[in-house]
Amino acid sequence: MTAQIINGKEIAEKKRVEIAEEVIRLKNLGVTPGLAVILVGNNHASRTYVRNKEKACHELGMNSILIEMQEEVSEEELLAKIAELNETPDIHGILVQLPLPKHIDEKKVIESISPSKDVDGFHPINIGRMMTGQNAFLPCTPYGIMVLLEETGISIPGKHVVVVGRSNIVGKPVGQLFLNQDATVTYCHSKTKDLPLHTNQADILVAAVGIPNFIKAEHVKDGAVIIDVGINRNEAGKLCGDVAFDEVAKKAGYITPVPKGVGPMTITMLMYNTVKSAAESLNRD
Ligand SMILES: Nc1nc(=O)c2c([nH]1)NC[C@@H]1CN(c3ccc(C(=O)N[C@@H](CCC(=O)O)C(=O)O)cc3)C=[N+]21
Ligand SMILES: [Mg+2]
Fold it and tell me: Same structural domain for residues 106 and 196?
C-alpha cells in the first residue's frame, strides 16, 4: 500500500476561512478577538512559532500583541504580567510560549492564567473539563489532530489508537480526545516493553516522542493511519518528524508529513480557541 498524504496545510487553510467568518461576525457585534503571546528569552525555534502565530492572527483580522521578556525576568514579574492580561477585556487569549527558563515554575505560570483565557488548554481546569467531556479549551495540537482526521473522513469509534509519548501537552490529551470519541486507546512511552508489539495493533498511530525517525516500517500495520507530531531538526538542520516518512509511507494507509501536517493545525486551533473565547466573553456580559 502507498499512503495517502494528509495535507495539514490545506485543511488548516480551509478551517481558517471558517474562523475568519466568525471573526467578522464578532467584529460586527463590537468584539475583535485578541491574543497575547508572552515570549521569555531568545529561543530561535520559539521565535519562528511566535511569528507564525502573529501572522495567522493578522490574516484572520484578529488582534495580537507580543510581550517579550528577558531570559532573566523574575517569576514574579511574569505572574504580574499575566494577572494584568487576565483583567484586560480586549485580550481573549493568553499564551505563554513554552519551554520557560529553568528558574521559572511552569506549573505555577500555567495555573495563573485565567481558565477563560487559557487558549492553549493547558490549565488543569480545562484539562479536567476535557477529561469529563465538558465545554473546555482543548489543547491545540491534539484538537488539530482530531480535525485532520475528521476532515479526511477517517472514522474513530471502535478504532485502536496507539499513542507513543505521554507529554501533558500532546500525548496524554490526544489519547483522551480519542477516548472521548469511543476509540480504544493504548499509551506507549520510554518504559514500554516491546514497542512494536503494541504499535503494530494500531489502526491509528500517533507519534509524539520528539526523536527523529523513531517510528519505522516495522512498527506499523499495513494500511494504518500515521499521525506524526514530531518537530525535530535532523543533522542537516532540516525539519523532520518522529516517523521515518519514506519507509512508513510505503506501508501505511494515511500519513501526515512534517512540515505541513500537524503543525499548521496547531496554530489554526489556537486561532479557533481565541475566537471561541471572544464569543464566550460576549455571553458573559
Ligand atoms: N504555550 C505553548 N503553546 C504551543 O502551542 C507551543 C509552545 N508553547 N511551544 C512550542 C510548541 C511548538 N508549536 C508549534 C506550532 C506550529 C508549528 C508549525 O506551524 N510548524 C510548521 C513548520 C514551521 C517551520 O518551518 O519551522 C509545519 O509543521 O508545517 C510548529 C510547532 C507550538 N508550541
Ligand atoms: Mg515519553
Answer: no
Catalytic, 285? Answer no
Q: Which numbered atom of ligand 1 lies nearest the CA of 270?
A: 5
**Domain count across the chain:** 2
Atom of ligand 1 nearest to the CA of 46: 10
pTM of the model: 0.97
pLDDT at 285: 66
In a domain, 212, yes or no: yes
Complex ipTM: 0.95
Residue 57 to residue 63: CA distance in whole angstroms: 6
Residue 279's nearest CA partner among 62, 130, 120, 83 is 62
247 occurs within a structural domain: yes
Contact 224, 253 (CB under 8 A): yes
**Three cell numbers, residue 100:** 520557560
* CATH code of 196's domain: 3.40.50.720
Question: How do residues 50-106 score in pLDDT, each as one tens digit?
Answer: 888 999 999 999 999 999 999 999 999 999 999 999 999 999 999 999 999 999 999
Which among 130, 215, 218 has a CA at the least distance from the CA of 165? Answer: 215
- Please tell me the distance from the alpha carbon of residue 141 to that of residue 127, in angstroms, as a whole number: 14
- Let me know whether 102 and 149 are in one domain: no
Ligand 2 centre to CA of 209 (Å) is: 6
